[in-house]
Amino acid sequence: MPPEGGRSLADLLQLVVVTLVVVMALAVPVIHFDVQRRYLDGNLTTLSLLTAEQLMRQVIARNPELWAYEQGRIAGLLRDQVRGVAVRQVVSSEGGETVVEIGTPLPAPLSTHRQWLFDAGRPVGALETSASLRPLLRDSLLLALVLALIGGVGVALLCRYPLARLRRAERDIRYLAEHDPLTGLLNRHVVEALFERESARARRHHLQLSIVIFDIDHFKRVNDRHGHDCGDRVLRQLAGLVSRHVRASDYLVRWGGEEFLILSTHTDLAMARTLVEKLRRLVAAHDFGLAQSITISLGVCGCMPGDGLHACVGCADAAMYRAKRAGRNRWCEGDGVDSGAEGADA
Ligand SMILES: Nc1nc2c(ncn2[C@@H]2O[C@H](COP(=O)(O)OP(=O)(O)OP(=O)(O)O)[C@@H](O)[C@H]2O)c(=O)[nH]1
Fold this sequence. Notes:
By secondary structure, the chain is α+β, with helices and mostly antiparallel strands. The chain has three domains: 1-42 and 133-177; 45-130, no CATH class; 186-344, Alpha-Beta Plaits, CATH 3.30.70.270. 48% of the residues lie in helices and 23% in strands. Helix 6 packs across helix 7. Bound molecules: guanosine-5'-triphosphate (GTP). Guanosine-5'-triphosphate binds next to strand 9, helix 6 and helix 7. InterPro entries: Diguanylate_Cyclase (IPR050469), GGDEF_dom (IPR000160), Nucleotide_cyclase (IPR029787), Rev_trsase/Diguanyl_cyclase (IPR043128).
């Protein structure tokens, strides 16, 4: 597959999501701070079930001497001072003193404040106010959790974006390093590794391996007569044609210039002979859109277990040059295998 170009829609969406997450991650501490401020400003009333006023009504019902409340005053405390203030619990009620604990706006969350209630100069009770940190802590923990989650997702996405681009770039670089840009075939740099792998597999499973090298005949004339661009087109057409007629298990490689190599796996010499003859006929019969026909000369070598790449390629290359010398549009076998065999049209 050739490298993909341009930035995909997925990349763009990912960028938008990452931006949103970053904005949210920045907004959360601001929201957190605002919530804290509201707690400290004394919105504890919203957390209580009873207001001081409601509780004081009950206290007064049990302690009728607190009559002043009905007149807008609870033993020296103005009604407005207790209305809406959160009540937590009645702390104690002893000797005529009723102590109630209420929540109230306080500068510091843990401070406690007690205010005595008087009836005609006589102390009848006290209002004890304290702010609770529990709701603040609970909400802070919740916010911290949300923050951590958002932060985690954000970091994961932030890392994912450059990592995906890096992986794509790595894939593109690997493709360019292993393929010929003109034909899209594998290039000669990968052959060594392929040969190592396939010959090891062949040895292990007692399979045969063959190498074919072929070269366009008089290709210089094509360039000279029709131009270099036309020569390039012929190379691409030839690569496409041959790759459609070799097995999926064969590797077709642009060996260099107008020369190609086939590493044919699971193929003994007899099968390779059939292959090269098939290719020779195929190319000779193909219409490349030129006034002249295009032919190829091929050399084939059946590799023996333990044969190295250079020995096999050298054997196939020498056979191919013998085919050239013998008149082109033909194939020869490598010297090491059988110097006599060759094929060509009569
Ligand atoms: N258009 C094009 N031409 C190439 C490319 N690579 C090599 N060639 C040309 O292939 C030609 C090879 O010429 P020669 O080595 O003389 O071989 P030939 O003309 O094919 O003759 P024989 O191989 O002896 O049949 C040269 O003209 C090179 O410029 C390529 O990528 N594109």
